[in-house]
Amino acid sequence: MELIQQDPDVNAYLAASETVDHEHPTVRRVADGLSVEHPDAYAYAEAAFAYVRDEIPHSMDSGDLRVTWRASDVLELRTGICYAKAVAYAALLRARGIPAALCYQRLTDDDGSHPVVHGLTAVLLPGERTWARQDPRGDGPGVDTRFSLGEEQLARSVRPELGEVDYPLLHAEPHPAVLAALRAARDRPHLERTLPAGLEPTGPEPVRLP
Hints:
The protein is an alpha+beta fold. The chain contains 7 helices and 6 strands, in the order βαααααβββββαα. The protein has helices at 25-37, 41-55, 59-62, 71-77, 82-94, 176-184, 188-194, and strands spanning 4-5, 100-107, 116-123, 132-134, 165-166, 169-170. The longest helix is centred in the N-terminal third of the chain and has 15 residues, at 41-55. It is globular. This is Transglutaminase family protein. It comes from Streptomyces bikiniensis.
């Protein structure tokens, strides 16, 4: 699948914001700790992926009722759903000057019911011309995710026959529907009932890179 930058300026994928708040002391502390043993960009990106995947439990797996949406809160409270963990990973990448984007899939149950949007992070490492999607959601029964610049190692591959979709757009910020659901949720059970089932295009016309 061809991944498409929604913003043609790669600097948009390095910016700090209220959500991807990579200038926050908590994000910097984690990034600094990881970079001590992993100064190389590739090694750092892989180590940051493993940290978010393994050290921050997915709240639907752990039963944590809290809802996080800022990267700093995800890292401080050590909890979040896939969207939040994707934001945390993006912030750790941007904290070290590595462009990071947010992207999404539409997934369903095995019979095509209960569609829901799943959040991923994409990384553009120095010297690479193409973005690579990563899935820091967290492993479990039947799920084995890995950092990879080649063949994707995501939690799920889409099944088009069931209406599942890989959305190609690379967002500098969370999709508005995703962020709205996170910010409005009183707790995780409320969030589970209000997760978006699909995404509409937003922002300017996407730009395909040469």
